């Protein structure tokens, strides 16, 4: 994979810890009574990290998770011994349903944009499919939400490391623009496929939704990402509220409370009756105007005044359009 497949440090740390935990029980079973300092040296971690791993292992085990199902161990000073391994020393035997579930999960992982070490996942999938036998032919198709033909084309282009020229629709401003981008990675967030790239037009890293890219052309030149470009931390979602973005305040009814769960809000306060006051950051007031108009009559703009006026003006224009009679259709000419 190219640099576009690099994982965040947190993801690498989690993957490293998972691998260490999977190896830790067999390691300790083969060395009963080993000193924690010696084990930490063999595993290449600090004593503190090893103790944290052992505490985590203590609450791991077989489904049911009662006292007789969890991994257990005994400490004698600075020495540790596994006293119950929860069956981790036995070869894994999958039932047909478990094997099929694992095959489906790995197929989905292969289709996920931005997955690092795709080749390793494909090798593991091939081995399990070979062991599963006839289950491989089960009528199961895996496709992620938002994973369209356009997303697949983008994924292949990103992996080749080429620059792209795209025609992109920006919903926040309701406009279509031409851009040349240098992709960093493909990823899936909230069931939608995105390409994260250095945008030469904006001179910054931007996220582009695959289903809003109306046209894409792969250029002959390689993607060149400036040294200052950094991939975004998307643990909180694609939209990242910033203090310099417009802050709007709405008075909402019970039917619109879903807003507080779907959008990052800075303030939510109970108002009169069942009304709530909700404040949130938006990309611009144009998007906010369309957002409010789509919510219905139980929403009132409290601030800013500019947004309230925009909503009022567009609502009045819409009502005027409905009030105006449609032009009469011309009568057909008489037959000769």
Automatic annotation (TrEMBL):
<feature type="domain" description="PafC HTH">
    <location>
        <begin position="16"/>
        <end position="129"/>
    </location>
</feature>
<dbReference type="Pfam" id="PF19187">
    <property type="entry name" value="HTH_PafC"/>
</dbReference>
<dbReference type="InterPro" id="IPR057727">
    <property type="entry name" value="WCX_dom"/>
</dbReference>
<dbReference type="InterPro" id="IPR043839">
    <property type="entry name" value="PafC_HTH"/>
</dbReference>
<dbReference type="InterPro" id="IPR051534">
    <property type="entry name" value="CBASS_pafABC_assoc_protein"/>
</dbReference>
<dbReference type="InterPro" id="IPR026881">
    <property type="entry name" value="WYL_dom"/>
</dbReference>
<feature type="domain" description="WCX">
    <location>
        <begin position="249"/>
        <end position="319"/>
    </location>
</feature>
<protein>
    <submittedName>
        <fullName>YafY family protein</fullName>
    </submittedName>
</protein>
<dbReference type="Pfam" id="PF13280">
    <property type="entry name" value="WYL"/>
</dbReference>
<feature type="domain" description="WYL">
    <location>
        <begin position="152"/>
        <end position="217"/>
    </location>
</feature>
<dbReference type="InterPro" id="IPR028349">
    <property type="entry name" value="PafC-like"/>
</dbReference>
<dbReference type="Pfam" id="PF25583">
    <property type="entry name" value="WCX"/>
</dbReference>
């Amino acid at each position: 994979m190219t640099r576009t497949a690099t994982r965040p440090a947190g993801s690498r740390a989690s993957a490293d810890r998972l691998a260490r935990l999977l190896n830790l029980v067999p390691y300790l079973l083969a060395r009963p009574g080993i000193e924690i300092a010696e084990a930490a040296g063999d595993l290449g971690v600090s004593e503190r990290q090893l103790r944290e791993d052992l505490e985590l292992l203590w609450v791991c085990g077989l489904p049911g998770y009662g006292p007789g199902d969890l991994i257990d161990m005994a400490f004698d000073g600075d020495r540790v011994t596994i006293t119950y391994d929860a069956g981790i020393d036995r070869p894994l035997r999958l039932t047909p349903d478990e094997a099929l579930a694992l095959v489906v999960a790995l197929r989905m992982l292969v289709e996920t944009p931005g997955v690092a070490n795709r080749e390793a996942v494909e090798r593991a999938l091939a081995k399990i499919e070979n062991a599963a036998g006839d289950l491989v032919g089960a009528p199961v198709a895996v496709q992620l939400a938002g994973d369209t033909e356009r997303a697949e084309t983008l994924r292949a282009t990103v992996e080749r490391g080429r620059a792209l020229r795209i025609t992109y629709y920006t919903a926040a401003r309701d406009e279509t623009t031409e851009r040349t981008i240098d992709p960093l990675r493909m990823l899936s967030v909230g069931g939608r496929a995105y390409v994260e790239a250095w945008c030469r037009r904006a001179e910054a890293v931007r996220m582009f939704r695959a289903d809003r890219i109306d046209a894409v052309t792969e250029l002959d030149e390689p993607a060149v990402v400036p040294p200052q470009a950094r991939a975004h931390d998307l643990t909180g979602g694609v939209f990242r509220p910033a203090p310099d973005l417009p802050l709007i305040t709405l008075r909402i009814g019970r039917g619109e409370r879903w807003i507080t769960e779907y959008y990052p809000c800075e303030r939510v306060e109970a108002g009169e009756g069942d009304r709530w006051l909700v404040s949130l950051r938006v990309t611009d007031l144009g998007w906010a105007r369309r957002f409010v108009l789509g919510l219905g009559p139980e929403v009132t703009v409290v601030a800013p005044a500019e947004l309230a006026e925009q909503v009022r003006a567009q609502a009045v224009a819409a009502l005027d359009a409905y009030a105006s009679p449609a032009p009469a259709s011309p009568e057909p000419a008489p037959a000769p």
